[in-house]
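cache lookup: miss for this entity combination. No prior model stored, computing from scratch. Input as submitted by user K.M.:
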Amino acid sequence: MTDDVAARWEDLCVRVADACGVVGRDADEVAILLAVKTQPAALVRSAISAGARLLGHNRVQEMTTMGPQLAGAPHEMHLIGQLQRNKARQALAWATCVQSVDGERLADRLEAICAEQGRSLDVFAQVNVSAEATKSGVAPSSAVALARHLGGLEHLRLRGLMTIGANSPDPDVVRSGFEELAALRDEVVASGAPGTAQARELSMGMSGDLELAIASGSTMVRVGSALFGPR
Ligand SMILES: *Cc1c(COP(=O)(O)O)cnc(C)c1O
């Protein structure tokens, strides 16, 4: 099992590098975050041994359970699932980055906790480019406003925008969502608002659509099943 994870991690790195090569990008422009939801800590440790450094949790509960189990294993923990304001403090005990900021009230809550604790936090604004009701994130029409709000908060560092691609068999539909996120990122960076000039990252692309995302400018793919197998 452990060997399998190491081999699949290598395969995944090659797959990302190949996807970059196809569109003339350097492989080191795209980080790989492992979406570790429902996986046992031992398997996640194997992935870290194989070279994974960025981990993402969907649920605060799973993050707080796994946190102590990964002590001593070099990694960074991101929250990639929806965060309720009353769980923000728990999340911040483990997360160095919240990719799923989907509103100003959550942003303000994160800012208040960070100010109180004298720390900073990396954030992405999550945008629902596919408008699927099951997905969180702000509507594209509100994305720039949310990003500007985040950029203005003293203890938060806006890194860019995050999305979950459309659940569609049509690659053109998926691609157009990714292209929309890239265009919104350009708008954010061009806005000139405080804290937005460096917000160039695009967290987009998963096991099934990472090539499309990389072709559209992704700087971070979030991968689960390609490494851990189907859930
Ligand atoms: C599960 C998950 C992923 C990874 O999805 P896979 O299809 O398993 O690669 C990426 N992002 C988020 C927000 C997820 O919940």
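stored under new cache key. Residues 2-22 form the longest helix (21 residues).
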